[in-house]
Amino acid sequence: MTNTNTLPDCCTIALEDAMRPDLFKALCDPVRISIVATLAARTDPATVSDISDCCGIDFSGVSRHLKILKEAGVLSATRDGRKVLYWLDADMLAMTLRTMADAIEICRKQAA
Amino acid sequence: MTNTNTLPDCCTIALEDAMRPDLFKALCDPVRISIVATLAARTDPATVSDISDCCGIDFSGVSRHLKILKEAGVLSATRDGRKVLYWLDADMLAMTLRTMADAIEICRKQAA
DNA sequence: CCATTACTTGCATAATTGTGCAAATATGCT
DNA sequence: AGCATATTTGCACAATTATGCAAGTAATGG
Fold it and tell me: How far apart are the C-alpha atoms of B14 and A79, rounded to whole Å?
């Protein structure tokens, strides 16, 4: 055996903390990726109806996908009269992905 | 309406291409994140049995999780006698995550 | 108020997923 | 060859997921 220590070291814990399966779960659906990509290309927020045009499913399904993305922190939303406006928290998402990449490399360097 | 163009622009397409739902799917399970974190902290490859010690499920389940991660390109494997050695493709994973972050920001800058 | 627009939610359903146990496969050792 | 070790695979099952349709809620405007 190469490693007799079966307890996770602090580097493992740090990485496990940085890698958020809930975020990955939110992003693991092609329709939701489509929504994220659509929102990323827009300067202004979009309504559920706007977004429904981009993916070939019923708008009720889009509404549900938006909720999932919002709960994962990928999107934000606000009501504006009858409409609900959604937008991408692009900075947050990009930063989170980079933090994960950093955590992986830090862990590798500590291991080596 | 703020955007009369319903066709996806090239920035949307580029982002949708960079964001890989199949990779997110591989990483959306807590046990698989645990496996990734465990492998990241090791200098040498680990066997299925080694990895089974770290997560509280049957080794047959671990074997399946390893297969999923391997097919997503997160891990590599080689047989060594009776054992099968798995290791994390850490550079690939870190790079892919950063590429996604870049794609998001490029898309945002082009939209603005 | 009532009709219209915009969105969310309940219900049903088909498909997928994670899991354990047992059997099968692969390899090494004597 | 026969047995032990290491991993994968088949099967069953419970839980979750994505989806459409229909009904419900929220807000606006006549």
Answer: 30
Contact B101, A89 (CB under 8 A): no
Q: How many angstroms separate the Cα of A44 from the Cα of each of A34, A41, B108? A: 17, 9, 11
- Which among B29, B94, B95 is the nearest to A21, CB-wise? B29
Are B38 and B46 spatial neighbours (Cβ–Cβ below 8 Å)? yes
Question: What does pTM read for this prediction?
Answer: 0.91
3-state secondary structure at position A26:
helix
pLDDT digits (tens, 9 = 90+) for A73-82: 999 999 999 9
Contact B21 A1 (CB under 8 A): no
Largest CA distance in chain A: 64
Instruction: Please report, rounded to whole angstroms, the spatial distance between the CA atom of protein residue B60 and the C1' atom of nucleotide D11.
Output: 13
